[in-house]
Every structure is written in C-alpha cells, then in structure tokens.
Design brief:
Number of strands: 9
Pfam families: PFK
Radius of gyration: 23 Å
Keywords: Allosteric enzyme, Kinase, Magnesium, Metal-binding, Transferase
Helix content: 10-25%
GO molecular function: 6-phosphofructokinase activity; metal ion binding
InterPro entries: PFKA, Phosphofructokinase_dom, PKF_sf
Shape: globular
Protein name: Phosphofructokinase domain-containing protein
Strand content: 15-25%
Length: about 210
C-alpha cells in the first residue's frame, strides 16, 4: 500500500497499513501448498550457532541448559530501526507528513527445527541467471556449504543460467565444499550466466529427467 492510497483521516490507517504489508510480504510455508507433507527432525547442526536456553537458576548456578539453535516460524525482524522525528531528518523515509512511526516486520531467516525433504534423497541444483552482480560466487559457495551441513550429497550447478536446462551441450557441474572452497576470491559467476532461456515447461521437464 503506497502512501498515495492511504486515507490518513482513518484512525486505523496504521493498522491497515501494517496488515497490508504483512499480506504482501508473507512467505507461504510448504504445507500451505502441500498440507500432507511429512516432516523430519532437522539435520542441521552447527554448534557455534546454538544459544543456551536456561530453564532454571539456583543462585548464580545454571541448573539445566538446553542447546537450541533453531528459528521459530513466528519470529520476525523489524525492517526499519530508525524512528525519524521529522521529514527533514537526513535519510528520512516517512509514510505521512508527521513521520509517524509504523512498525514493519519481516520473517526471520535461519534453520527450522523441522525439514520436509530427506537430505539423502535430495538432488540440489544451483544456477545463476540474468546479469552479473558482486558476490555471486560467495553465495554459491555458502549455499553448497549449508547443503552439506544438512547432509545433502548430490549438489550440482546448472551452467549458464536457465539455458543449462535446455542446451544438450552443457553438462551439470558437480559441486562440493572442496570444489567451491576458494571461488569467492574470484569475480563473475563460477557457474556462468545468461539471459532468457527455455520455457517453464521445458525447465520442469528437464528437472524431472535429471
């Protein structure tokens, strides 16, 4: 909802703005589409990311610690943290002329306690398409590392964007931590990029064959 569409005479305009924002930026869950999808305990385990949840204290002694590093699906992150007091403040982004503070929340990213794919049966494919942008190799590298942390064994790169799904002369690239360890030190895309490509139907057919 843009500022031009807001009726600021409505005493509930802030609530309506927030509800509209939540609707537009809500991320559907897999079970919203496939309600009968079975879930499995997450295989993600990164000791350094875990934080202790202390149930009880006795004086200054922690009686019991539970280590839990997963993100709750209802966790949210505040999108904007600066409360501007005036539209003339440097960098001010105001919805109304008084710069009224309106909280905008987005989903928190991170590993969940339940997963819906068995890692040993997953074949994950990564591709980069469109134009180049800084940091693509760093993203490719981290996705591969994270997939391996989950226990995924079959990780491939699709060369030259969506074109890699239809060009029979292009072969999948096997990816692993060993292969991508230092690609973030190079520019461009390790997988290559291209604009355009096959139709959605052709892409899906190619994925099913693979």
């Amino acid at each position: 909802m843009s500022a031009a569409k807001i009726d600021f005479t409505d005493p509930d305009w802030k609530v309506k703005f927030q509800e509209d924002f939540e609707t537009r930026f809500n991320i559907p869950h897999l079970t919203d589409v496939f309600p009968d999808s079975p879930s499995f305990p997450s295989t993600f385990c990164l000791q350094s990311s875990r934080t202790p949840v202390v149930e009880e204290y006795s004086a200054d002694f922690q009686v019991e610690d539970k280590w839990h590093g997963y993100i709750n699906n209802n966790d949210r992150v505040l999108l904007k943290v600066i409360h501007y007091s005036s539209p003339t403040s440097a960098g001010a982004e105001c919805i109304d002329k008084d710069c009224t503070w309106v909280e905008q929340w987005v989903h928190r990213a991170g590993p969940r306690e339940k997963i819906y794919f068995e890692p040993e049966n997953v074949k994950a494919a990564i591709l980069t398409c469109g134009g180049l942008c800084p940091g693509l190799n760093d993203v490719i590298r981290q996705v591969v590392i994270t997939l391996e942390i989950y226990g995924v064994k079959k990780i491939v790169g699709i060369p030259f964007g969506y074109r890699g799904f239809s060009d029979e002369d292009l072969s999948e690239m096997e990816l692993s931590r060993k292969v991508i360890q230092n690609i973030h030190l190079s520019g461009g895309s390790y997988l290559g990029v291209s604009r355009g490509g096959p139709t959605v139907t052709e892409i899906v057919d190619s994925m099913e064959i693979r």
